[in-house]
């Protein structure tokens, strides 16, 4: 199951697997916002605001509008979530809260920090 999820959220091919899954699913769903932020960053950095003639680059504006339209599509579908008091009380239980140090410690247990110096590149 973890391998399937890793394949789904992989950034390979501009998040190709996730885009395919999102286009096949029936809303409501919550897409990965980082995918759209990456798209917007590439558009912003790789496309000039103005054409060589000094005119507004409407092609760039259309690309931005397309990304925003896709995000809004997912926002327009309402969610039908049943309220379960036990779940709410579990999630809001203050005794389960961790301070920043505890959170960092747990994070390192799950995914140990690697030094850039200790990472050795494999020969090509």
TrEMBL record:
GO terms for cellular component: plasma membrane. SMART domains: RasGEF. Gene3D superfamilies: Ras guanine-nucleotide exchange factors catalytic domain (1.10.840.10). Pfam families: RasGEF. One of its GO terms (molecular function) is guanyl-nucleotide exchange factor activity. Keywords: Guanine-nucleotide releasing factor. The keyword Iron does not apply. The keyword Cell membrane does not apply. InterPro entries: Ras-like_GEF (IPR008937), Ras_G-nucl-exch_fac_CS (IPR019804), Ras_GEF_dom_sf (IPR023578), RASGEF_cat_dom (IPR001895), RASGEF_cat_dom_sf (IPR036964). Residues 1-113 form the Ras-GEF domain. One of its GO terms (biological process) is Ras protein signal transduction. This is Ras-GEF domain-containing protein.
